Amino acid sequence: MDDEILFILxxxxxxxxxxxxxxxxVMAYNTRQRVRALESRLRLAESALVQLRRxxxxxxxxxxxxxxxxxxxxxxxQAPPEPEHASDAPADTAPEMPxxxxxxxIAARQGLEERFGTRWAVWIGGLAxxxxxxxxxxxxxxxxxxxxxxxxxxxxxxxxxxxxxGEVLRRRTAPIPAFGSAYAPGALTAAGATTAFAVVYAAFxxxxxxxxxxxxxxxGAIALATMLAAALHGPAxxxxxxLGGFAAPLLVSSADPSLWPLPIYLAFVAIAAYGVARLxxxxxxxxxxxxxxxxxxxxxxxxAFGDTAxxxxxxxxxxxxxxxxxVALPYGRDRAPRPSLDRVATGVLAGFAGLAVLALSSGDVxxxxxxxxxxxxxxxxxxxxxxxxxxxxxALLAAGIVAGSLVTWPVAYEIAEExxxxxxxxxARVLWxxxxxxxxxxxxxxxxxxxxxxxxxxxxxTPLLRLPAAxxxxxxxxxxxxxxxxxxxxxxxxxxxxxAAPALPFTLGAAALAVAYTALAVxxxxxxxxxxxxxxxxxxxxxxxAAxxxxxxxxxxxxLDRGLLTVALALSAAGSAWVADRTRIPTxxxxxxxLGFVVLMRLVEDPTVADDPGRTILLNWLLVGYGVPAVAxxxxxxxxDRTRRDGISRFSxxxxxxxxxxxxxxxxxxxxHGGDPLAETTSHVEMGLLATASLAFSVLATRLDxxxxxxxxxxxxxxxxxxxxxxxxxxLAYAANPLVTDDAIAGAPLLNDLALAYAxxxxxxxxxxxxxxxxxxxxFVEAAGWLAxxxxSAWIALAIRHAAQGAQIGIDRVxxxxxxxxxxxxxxxxxxxxxxxGLLRDVRRARLVGVAFLAAAVVKVFLVDLANLEGxxxxxxxxxLGLALVGIGLAWQRLAARRPAAAAGxxxxx
Length: 910
Known about the structure:
Protein name: Membrane protein
Keywords: Membrane, Transmembrane, Transmembrane helix
Region (Disordered): 53-100
Pfam family, one: DUF2339
InterPro entries: DUF2339_TM, UCP035905_mem
Radius of gyration: 39 Å
């Protein structure tokens, strides 16, 4: 029994956390809003005082002291800012206690003594009363004075006494505005309600005096009564009642559990909470009720016991109650003629929409129940979006529920279980599966209904603001296409092995949608052509044109039978950008951004864009899957830039860079791995080509940044340079270095694959360092230069070893005398080249590099060559080094003699 009580307490704590978090957040938000309002009034008063000090009053005017004490007229006539829509004012700014009279002065800041005496003492006293009753009963039990019945009776009497005391104190005392949050009658009533919960639970779980049904009813009644009493006693009691109401079912267990009473009970709890929230204008309480109902939806979905109906009913009922509490009641009288979107209401409805899809996917829901539930949810949300502008986003949620129900629909299982029809002649075969017919009919009817309702609302005479109109336009133009794509994806995924989803019907469906949206656009053109701005009609026209282009793109992909939508969505984004450019509707730009985000997610899900890109080099599916989106988003960015340069156009340009880079990278891997771009192996040639491609993209971005300084090109230049550095450090320097792997090198000396792996990226790094001087910081230019130097030096060293050792140059192979001498000669040659460049161009950094190479050559000759070389090779090594050092000294002296100013201390060119 102790374990059960422990688990119950843990459940109560888990259930309380989100509700208390929401309460704390909303209270903090309201406090911040009030502080901002006080700061605004204080600034107005200060400005009025400054103005009065600058303008001395006439002789008959009051004294400055009197004037300063009076309320300035500007402050008296200053009206509070109007809320964005009707529900925000009562929901977010309404006080939780009765407002203080206007003539009362603002209370001074309370010290520790005032807070303890007026706030902490009240709440600590209420907690002490509740704990005192518990300890008193415990002491009597330990002394053997009271039996179980007496304990329950005394607990009930103590709870009734606390509640009665709170009511008497409420009627005889008036709340003090400055200390309203420490309302003493509310503390007594909260202690009584907590004691009542404990008494009922003890009578049921500890002593068995009452059965589970009666305990359930009593706990629910106490919770509802507590929430109703909160309308008189304050928000703390409402939080206790809400927590107790949602926790009551967890406190009652039964040998034969049934989930059906829960939806009914939880509906009454939510109704009581929404009612109190509406009466007292506590929006936090309504949000807490929605969160509690959502948590119970998860419980009913997980603990379905084979019966999903209670969970579906609960989600549907709670969605209807939330729509009424957050949308219908606040906006039923249309107090704001043109309200904008209510983000809180939309978020609550979105949460229940997600729970609806989860409920459909987690249990065995038959086709009839699925259609009834999904249809009812979609109809409810669509009606809410059409009737109330602040909930216009619910139309998109309705489309999401329909698509989610189709994705989770086990249509393959239903077709397999469907009995075969017998036709004359004794041949048994499936003519037209009834399950497939139901699946397609539901999707088509639901999609057309949502689109028609949203489109009709847009053409209605009642005006709409931009965001609600844009949401309805997206639902009207995108829902049928979304459903068509969802059906195609579901069937091709379910019947991939059966080949039961031919492309032709879907292609014809996409073509029909394209024709329908084109006809709608043609019909709307003369009606809204003369309108200015983002009117609902123009938004619908733009959405219809974009949907027609998207449907055509989808039809092309269906015809290609690739089962992928990346190309279609990219072409749709380009088409939407073209429509946005022609119609000058800024909201349509967001469609391009949304499509770009979806395409990016498709790229993350399937990087190769196709299961089998083909074996042909360059001319394969990768060229279509990545090349077409790259061109499409580059075109979209250019079209969007004609109107203005913003985040959407930059995002489109970024996607063009990303798709172009993936195209080049995967084509390199495809060519080097026999058509498998996801091969697990790699080589120094591949790493070198990938580094070269990254540097080429960095150079391209840098050149574009020279013509037009922009964030996208700047970030792209840095990102591709960093990517190339990663290929060099982790690939060419270690993982794919032929010195480490001992892989064979193809080709003759100097003309081999080492040139592709090391020399080619070195050249690109040098080009990047030169191009980046005007637009990049000094550290970037220096890093590119050092990268070019490192790659070039590595290529020379590896080329010497390849010439001496042959195809395999592993580090464990013993070097020859000619190889050792060649290393010394190479160091001297590099030193001479760097010093010559530094001396002729007066570049100090190049001279320092030459000195470093020369120092390395000296160290090698005197330490390595002296110990390993013999005979002529040793002599040639020392002779060559000596001649080089003498020649360098003479050249340096002559150059210094020609530049006396520089020799005297002039600043060199760096």
